[in-house]
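Researcher: I'd like a candidate sequence for this fold, 117 residues long. If you have to choose between options at a position, lean toward the conservative one.
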């Protein structure tokens, strides 16, 4: 079993910054993908950023240049530094892990990010 626990969400003004963190526990496997998705009200869940255990990254075009994903393979954690936030970034952000050991997807409980003046 794999569990993901997010932290760091909150309310921030436009132009501000937040840092989200996620810790994974369980039998994950050394080859995996960790990252972040988000879902705004009335919209589908969408990719924000992912990072493979080998260091490759993938960003949504809407966040590239503003958000930075990082991970610590030894600690099984992933973080998302979000800068220059705008109201369009308001959503519930979900930590994500895909294990190539189990071929399963895992999701955190979600953390709310609200960008508003």
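Model: Candidate sequence:
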């Amino acid at each position: 079993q794999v569990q993901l626990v997010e932290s760091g969400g909150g309310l921030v003004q436009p132009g501000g910054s937040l840092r989200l963190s996620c810790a994974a526990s369980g039998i994950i496997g050394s080859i995996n993908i960790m990252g972040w998705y988000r879902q705004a009200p009335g919209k589908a869940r969408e990719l924000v950023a992912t990072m493979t255990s080998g260091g490759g990254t993938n960003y949504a075009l809407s966040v590239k240049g503003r958000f930075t994903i990082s991970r610590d393979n030894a600690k099984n954690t992933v973080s998302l530094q979000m800068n220059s936030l705008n109201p369009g970034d308001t959503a519930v952000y979900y930590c994500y892990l895909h294990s190539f050991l189990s071929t399963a997807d895992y999701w955190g409980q979600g953390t709310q990010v609200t960008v508003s003046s």
